[in-house]
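G., the chain you wanted modeled:
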Amino acid sequence: MRLLDFLKFYLVMLTLLFLGMSLFSLSTEQKVLIFLLATLASPTLFRHFLRLRGVRKGDLVLVSYSQRSQFGTIFQKELGRALSQGKEGEVIEVELPGRVAKGEVKSVGGFVFPPEVSLLFYEEAKAERRREH
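Predicted structure as tokens:
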């Protein structure tokens, strides 16, 4: 899912790197070494970029919650869409199929997985919200 975002980040990073290298006279070996170091560092830089960016309105998020049943506690995860923005540890509003809820951002995700939000409570039904606007 976020692999495309990583590729965009990588291309922008390489563009800035090549622009920076064009300002200095470097040997071919030095240019190759700088390119390899930037390529190896790009996954770590992307994770830091995701932490700075946080969750934006409209992003897909993985909502985790637990439900009590007669058989015990069931842990579930489902996809939702962020209705507000926030960073790790902040509370955001999330739209789930048929309902709106609030949850705490637990992680900002990675290359494949979307940000994870821990459900705190359901706010209101989605149909009721439409009638207000």
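The chain has a mean pLDDT of 86.

Shout if anything looks off.
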